[in-house]
Amino acid sequence: MANNRADTREILAVTGMTCANCAAAIEKGLTKLPGVSDVSVNLGTERATVSYHPDEVSHQDIVERIELIGYGVVEAAPDENVEDREREARREEIRRQTRYLIVGAIFTVPLVVLSMARDFELL
Hints:
Blueprint: E1 8-15, H1 20-31, E2 36-42, E3 47-52, H2 59-69, E4 72-74, H3 82-116
Antiparallel strand pairs: 1-3, 1-4, 2-3
Helix pairs in contact: 1-2
């Protein structure tokens, strides 16, 4: 989309990406928004760089599209540092994944013990 209007370029911290398909899904979803001229998603840094025409699409439209696709965007309040907010979001993600691991282990260990007890002559 080449034209003479000035694009706004934003770098957004995206949460919830786990693979290259996640990054591709975000790129594809954002490219479909009218007014978005360029999208680049980096899985390693979990950042999306979006160039768009502010008179056609807003920052909030882009955030809502990313959330509609199934991912999150780290946003900070005006008086808050973006890096601090992103760090806290990453910590919360680690806490959530740790809870999933613990719950999974609680259900898996008894199942394995019961299913293997006969093989090891524990019953």
